[in-house]
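Q: I'm writing a short methods note and want an example of a predicted protein-small molecule complex. Could you take the sequence and the SMILES for pyridoxal-5'-phosphate and return the bound structure as tokens? Please keep the output block clean; save any remarks for afterwards.
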Amino acid sequence: MIPFVDLKAQYASIKDEIGPAIQGILDTCQFTLGNEVAAFEKEFATYSQAEHGIAVNTGTSALHLSLLTAGIGAGDEVITVPFTFVATVAAIYYSGAKTVFVDIDPVSFTMDPAKLEAAITPKTKAIIPVHLYGQSADMDPILAIAKKHNLVVIEDACQAHGAEYKGRRAGSMGDFGCFSFYPGKNLGAYGEGGLVTTNNAKYNHTLRMLRDWGAEKKYQHVLKGYNYRMEGIQGAVLRVKMKHLEKWTEARRAAAARYDKAFAGSKVAAPAAMSWGRHVYHIYAIRTKARQQWQDALQAQGIQTGIHYPIPVHLLPAYADLGYKVGQFPHSEQAANEVLSLPMFPELTSQQIETVANAVKALASA
Ligand SMILES: *Cc1c(COP(=O)(O)O)cnc(C)c1O
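A: Understood, no commentary inside the block.
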């Protein structure tokens, strides 16, 4: 069987480092925040070319607190894409603001900047571009439009650790960058985790308060805050894994290059790597009109695949109250119908890639 992701293979490769890191937390009893989390914040901010890193409990909390720190709430509008994981939109809902969608570009699968200005109203306060699948959105035009209309930019970089746009890292370009360390992400905790990057010292200060009950000092609650703290064990595990992240990212890129090469000249619709940056391949998604058939056939051959995501958020029952209808975001809808994610993880062997690629090519030429 070729799994879609293989967390056990990765654990086996770092077992000797993980044990002592977790033991260190047991010894110091710094179970929430603490020295390991603080050190991880610095290391991850540096890695992401940002000045500050604020560790939280999930990527969703990172998005939620970024919105609150920017002063966004009821009566405001926030623009994002419908072709994303539901958490992007849930965070906007938590803030009290209303989500306004713009469609994706059908090649990059990220926000189409050409559609952005038409969605801006006097209520618009922020834009959340999503660096989907590990590829940066087209940030220069998005940042230019945000500047022109005085809007905050929150990068949803939950799938894009180490991704680059014209040499700039994900999380360093907007006012805030939001990362997830869900176990399956490119940098995954052994539990849940998230982090906000920012270059703004005031935002840094507010984010640190909001994640820990809005306290300036213990019991001095100056803001209505949350319990969104990162656990000490996650900080310790993430510090160990940080050291391997570049190597793992290059392994993902090499795996993607092997898939690309195998699919070149075939009928398989491989994903596009835009010339503007460094794709970190959280997901390697091909497209096909016969998705269900392909997924079943691959499964029968012992090849696990995934679908990210089968329903765009504007058509999810949970967000029906936003009032969108089928047909309003055709590129998102088509992508949701056609994408099929192939096995992708750093430990994927060239043999496994060849097996998957041959099976997919056989389906495409059948
Ligand atoms: C994973 C993810 C999130 C949410 O992160 P959690 O840590 O699971 O809360 C948000 N946005 C995108 C695009 C994601 O992939």
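A: Remarks, as requested: The radius of gyration is 20 Å. The chain has two domains: 7-242, 245-365.
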